Amino acid sequence: MIRVGADTIPDRTIRHRIDGEAALRWALIALFAAFLALFVLVPLGHVLARSLQDNAGRFSGLANYARYFSTPAIAASITNSLAVSAATTVVTVALAFVYAYALTRTTMPWRGTFRLVAMLPIFAPSLVQGIAFVYVFGNNGIVTRLTGINVGIYGFKGIVAAETFYCFPHAMLILVAALAAADARLYDAASALGASRLKTFRTVTLPGVKYGLMSACFVVFTLVITDFGVPKVIGGKYSVMATEIYNQVIGQQNFTMGATVSVVLLIPAAIAFVVDRLVQRRQYALLSARSTPLVPARRRLRDVALFVYCAGVAGAIAAIYGVILVSSLVMRWPYSFAFTSKHYRFDTIGGYTPLVNSLYVAALTAAAGTVLVFAGAYLVEKCRTAASGPLYILSILPLSIPGMVLGLAYIFTFNAPGSVLNWLYGTLAILVISNLVHYFTVPFLTAMTALKQMDGEFENVSASLGVPFYRMFWRITVPLALPAIVAISMYFFLNAMVTLSAAVFLVAPGTELAAVAVLLMDDSGDTAQAAAMSVLIIGIGLGVRLVYALVMRGVTRRTQAWLTATR
Question: What pLDDT was estimated at residue 311?
Fold first, then answer.
């Protein structure tokens, strides 16, 4: 009897521990699901519901949509948005492909420098490109004054040109990754069969990067059609859907029509997102265990030609940001170039408060976002449950939600009378949450990729040894995935520093952000101070990127040493 009792006690203990772990796991899954439902699904539901009501809150069916499409001035924003997005996509992807090809398939010098310069637009809010183009090609721009030629930068041409600069690094990074994954055996076979260089390019190179080209097209198209900053600064009277939402809400206080335009804007963004996901599913591995890395051959004429091309593109990008820097340090661009630092006083926006707010919000976004995203990805990928599929779909949904739509949705949800979360509106907390949701999907997919690379045997052995899943997560999973965790944190911080579209609806007195301050100063005519704030945003972004690079190097050396030790 004594022996039987001794045997049954451990079984009960183990069963109790397993039940406790299961309860904790499901509790965490419920919290993750509640976050996504409350800050993604519920706000979208409010936008859709508001678009079906009149200004008095009564149900009106599709009347708002009928009015939207029957009003030429408003309906034109649809065709304008599609035209701008399509033109920018063609120009940007074409320019970025040649640039990426030069970086990966030639032996030209300065490839590292060219890549670094091309990354500059990532560290600035999108409207900075618009401000720079106005300084150079506007009615009183430096080129206009020197040549007497006004190219008419305001409108379609200006938006396409500025958006091309803004989207260039995004397309370049995708295409660099696609072109770097090349198997030399395919090129050797083409050469052995007597194929010309042009035919090899058409039959080997292009088919190998077709999915990268498609992804670059969809990314650029989505960025442009949802962007607010560039058309707001340089669009003039050329209305696009993002600026139409802003004008309806801020300019006319017509929240119903703003919601209607938001729902319409969701459609092309969602289509681009779905098609991109389908394209990525069809991708196949170009490199196998037997693949031979492609080593670029030296061809002097090609290398010189592509070096000149890259130097021209990099020079144009550097010049645009050079204009921003110089205009912030002279008395009055382009009339007086005497040096001054007065524009850095920011006396029209209350000093450095917006910049401090941005740093605070970015730091909180990086910290909270990294924890939420990685823990959520772990629950979805490693804790396989019936909720994993729906949670995955909810986690990638924010990528298809434009920032303007998200900001307006949060107004309807958290600024509504009687809302239990009304206290969030007008605080820095709502800005942090909007950043978390707006930039959620890319870090989530990064975490999922890192977790998929870890063998499931880790969890099996842990369970067989009776180690709780949370201890396994902390002691094994986190150290192995630390490089990805650092990259996720950096992504959140840098994007939170330059965010504009969602934040423009959510800031309140005392919670202004640096990017929103740039917009407000440009609107009020203080373009020199707007340029100065832009310089600080870019400088902070570059500095933080450097710190993260050093941290990443140390983290990789300390946590991934076992990979090289076992080779």
Answer: 97
